[in-house]
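Input set for joint prediction.
Command: fold jointly, output tokens.
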Amino acid sequence: MGKEECKTMLDALNKVTACYRHLVIALGSTSDSQNLREELKRTRKKAQELAVANRTKLTSLLKDKTISKEDRAEYERLWVLFSSSMDLLEVDMKRSLEIGQEFPLKVPTRHLIQTGMTGSTTTVAARAMSVQNMKYEADSNVDTADLRDLRSEITQVSQMMEEMEMKVQVAPWAVEAKQEAGAELKSNMSVGNSSVGVISICEEEPKEEDGAGGRDTGFATICAVAGFVIIVFVAVVLGYLVINMS
Amino acid sequence: MTIRNTLRDHGQRYRPRIACLKKAEKVLLEMQDPKTGVKSQPQRLVITTIPHAITGEDILSWLADRFQIDTQEARNFGSMLVALGYIYPLQDHKRLVIKPDASLYRFQTPYFWPTQQWPVEDTDYAIYLAKRNIRKKGILELHEQEQYNRLHKWMNHKWDFIVMQAKEQYRAAKERKKPDRVVFDCQERAYWVVHRPPPGTVSAMDYGLDRRIDPNADEEKTPDFYGRIMIFTQQSIMRPRVKSSVSIGALVKYCATYNGHDPFLSKCLPSNPWITDDITYWNLNMPNVEIPTKMRVERWTFSFGELLSDPRGRDDFRLFLKKEFSGENLAFWEGCEDLKWGTAATMREKAEQIYKSFLARGAPRWINIDGKTMEITVNGLKHPHRYVLDAAQTHIYMLMKKDSFGRYLKSPVFKDTLKKAVCPEEHKYSDAQLEQNAKNRRPSLSPIVLRQQEKEHRAKMAANAPVDITQLCRYTTPVPHLAVYSGISDFPSANASPSLPFLAHSPACPSPISVALDSTSASERRAEAGEGGAAGIPEARAPAAGSVSRSCMPLSLRRLLKRGCTPSTMFASLSPKYHSAAGTSSRIQPISPDQPSQAPPRRIGNFFQIKVDIPPECRIYPIESEDEDEEENRAASRGGVGAKEIICPWESLTPQNGTG
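tokens >
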């Protein structure tokens, strides 16, 4: 069904946009590197492919006059999602061009801003590309050719968005959101082991993070304690049996 | 200090731009140098260590060193960098100042640097709030909560996107290592403290409305662009030029004169409210304060324009002119200002009022302008517009400036004001007191209340304004209780009763309403006149016996006046009210014998400025021109119709034009 496909593609585009933003934020800082630029490039390409695919799908769906009213409302909602994603993507691309030009990498003395971020962004990019590991190409001309490509991509995206506006008549303000306020709290957030461990964000918020981390560690310790008790019990029972047997 | 060529800079006269951003960025880059930059140290948190933290004192010493400035200046500079968002504090993140101790700061990533080019979007803020909601599990700060609700309401159509993006960004952030995540959260939070400041603080990036074009962007060279350059240069060629010796001399003189009065360059007594949070200065310099400050009075002596533009100065000048009996000049000038700055709907009316009060032949407050200007003005009044009285206004302004102003400065009124003027002592506040003052700041009166007060004040002034009559006018009558004249106490109370029935029956004679012939009150008078005779009578009656007598001027009195008056004597003439109501002339008869007896004493008595009661519909003729018989005839012919007092030249075709 067209709607499901659309939704999955939009989810993918959304994910890529979010990852791209994270990558752009790291530009110019001490976690900037050749790899980062390459990650940016590849994420961008992926984003563009997704964008084109989404666009064709949605335009074809919306141009179809025979769909019902609810369907049309739904498609309009998806369209608003798509165009907002594209807005974010476009701005991020323009900014990455600007910052990339300001902080060239292949210069003898490079002054990257010491922001405190030193780790790599490989995992973020991997998430964007939906791959397990990122493989990098050895040398790419980050400062010149890359930026040229970026410029052309930006123009492509802008053109695409203009075409979109022309072809499809959707009033974005008329769309009603399905999620209500606070919807982001509903889904499962902190699964996985990344929330275990007590780390405070900044020195003045140690208590809250403590509490949050503490709650999880509390659970873990309870499990550990319970496990321990069970093992001890089993050991005692076995010992008793052994003693009784012998 | 470089002197830029502003010839080609077409945007210079518009809003100021934040040019300091590019300069701050350069400074930031210099600070990063591992050898010559600011020394960084690792920040130790509970488990992790995050590098690149810098202390406040290191930053300040580096700035002082680099720019060769003292510590206070370095502090200001550092605070500016923090307030703009280039450096953010790690502890006490809401107060964007630099503390000269070991408190830690960190540099902001270039994506989050302040810039005018990329406007701060509400969408981004909404995504940030949603992410924060997730992290804090629903517990946001109060102002964040409010903003969240507001954005949810106004950006509802994008809300799905915002929620989805927030979740995705949250998950993507989790992919990074813990220290980096911490840093990222701090960065983002610092960014939004700058651009969406918590209540009670101001954002340093608040630069007002956005311009239509970005001043730092290159303008494309369209024909329109070149067209604008051409117009600009053509206009510069045509500009009149002044010799530099003259203009520099004027500048030097201006600076020397105003140097002591500039609160930036010299002390502001008692203290500058913007610095010490003490509003005595403003209270002492209110527009209608009783006793002005010495500085203010001194300012009035600089030029006539200064005197007029200060409301207290204008009041003083008005008082002086009243004593000199030339208040009509200032009143006319004020009327013209009113016309120039007033609403377009009232313009026509105002122009007519001004003409009737000041310019027409036989006007009660006739001003003295030369024939040519008068001609121009009267011609212009046929099609009145905002600046129709400009020529006359300028003439009167120059007259006042050359003549009255000089005398004012030597007059006892001014000397008295100068003597009474107060010179406040300078405040000396300690730091603790300054903080106390800052806590006690209160908002001032709302502008609506102020405007109301101003209106009331103006109405009160208009009602109390005296009329100085320079030209004899038979049809004006003094009001005894308000008269400043000496000695006349016998007022024709006998008039009161006969006039009442008289009044009651003549719709054409509205009751005497105590009005001033001020131009501003003219319209009020008109409005009051409209209320009709009967209503006005009791109130006019109330103040003392004898409201204005409304009997007609007997022939004998007129003759008396004609003989007795000379152009130089000023007296208010008495009583001619309406002459007319010819239909009721029979009723008037019994009163008239009274008149001659009263007339002489009253005439002598009314030498001084008095309040005059004039029924708006009464006809006013200059004394010299009319003949008694003509008057009678005219009166008879007009009958009981509300005759206009002065016939405006452009309305001569329609003499029975309502109230005129």
